[in-house]
From TrEMBL:
It comes from Rhodococcus jostii. PROSITE patterns: N6_MTASE. Residues 207-376 form the Methyltransferase small domain. It comes from the Bacteria. Pfam families: MTS, RLMG_N. GO terms for molecular function: N-methyltransferase activity; nucleic acid binding; S-adenosylmethionine-dependent methyltransferase activity. This is 16S rRNA m(2)G 1207 methyltransferase /23S rRNA m(2)G-1835 methyltransferase. GO terms for biological process: methylation; rRNA processing. InterPro entries: DNA_methylase_N6_adenine_CS, RlmG_N, RsmC/RlmG, SAM-dependent_MTases_sf, Small_mtfrase_dom. Residues 14-184 form the RlmG N-terminal domain. PANTHER family: RIBOSOMAL RNA LARGE SUBUNIT METHYLTRANSFERASE G, RIBOSOMAL RNA SMALL SUBUNIT METHYLTRANSFERASE C. Keywords: Cytoplasm, Methyltransferase, rRNA processing, Transferase.
Amino acid sequence: MPGSEVFDRDALFSRLRRRPDVEAPNLVAVDAADRLILDEAAAALSAARPGTVAVIGDHYGALTLGAAAGHGATGIRVHQDPLTGELALAANAETTGLSDRYRPSALGEELLGGATVVLMQLPRSLSELTEIAEAIARYADPSVAVYAGGRDKHISTAMNDVLGRSFSAVRASLGRQKSRVLIASGPEAVTAPTYPVTDHLAELGLDVVSYGAAFAGAKLDIGTRYLLDFLPRVNPRARTAVDLGCGTGILAVSLAKLLPDVSVIATDQSSAAVASAAATARANGLDDRVSTLRDDAMSSLGTDSLDVVLCNPPFHVGAAVHTGGASKMFAEAGRVLRPGGELWTVYNSHLGYRGRLQRLVGPTDVVGRNPKFTVTRSVA
């Protein structure tokens, strides 16, 4: 800890915000798992040499800034799959005067080379955890200790098994405030990484490539499957389109196959999704017309610049059920579409988004509905 000052972690954490991610009374910037991870790793953090601490999946900066301010850690390398997490950490680091203590890094040797301490918020998917665990085992120092925490309701025994395939020792901490930490050490040799994986979807005639954190993996999720039925009704004169929240890029590549004159941007805030979509476009020989962009809901795209937006929006923010992310997507679609441009959306029917789409984009018609999903066409 710097100097002889007493570190007030609660004071630091009270200054952290989620922006630009959705902010609401039931959505927090720091949770009990953040605190428990830092407490379990306290001795290791205090002993770590500069540049040997890595942080993965830090939601909004609590782990990174807690390690920096509470234990004097410097040269912290951080990987956050969502862009909103990166932006929130940068804003919170600026607010707390800790911007010089860390740097963003891609998952791999850049992040993990020589790391002796890894702090991590456990991801929800086992595929993402598998890719992360293999990367740590492959690149980190042999003495590395991994402190991977989360809320009890999101931790399963399968996570112990995943970590156990990459580390010789895995144990669980005592629980506290409905949170727990899995502590792994003794990295095993990784012969060949599991991810990315490629699957051929015969029904679409597509090869789909997926990194571990990409939504639905290399499979076709049922919402996207339903929206695909309506792609032949997209304006055939469209020349510019976006697959918003692209995942592995199935919608983007399918639209490019259908309309030979269209250029499609596959965009997502997830770095794994963007990498997956780029690989999917290459695998299908469409990387000349399907480009990728890691962005926060098309915020960097020009107003009135697009003919078509395709969107299968999430109905959650992190682990919390919340429709704020979808509203943000709809509002940006209304901004970027040219007058007369189309937004095609698929969503769980119980969410009743039609009124919101009419308000944020323009006149909206329900063009399809099955027992689970609704598909709408909104005209800007």
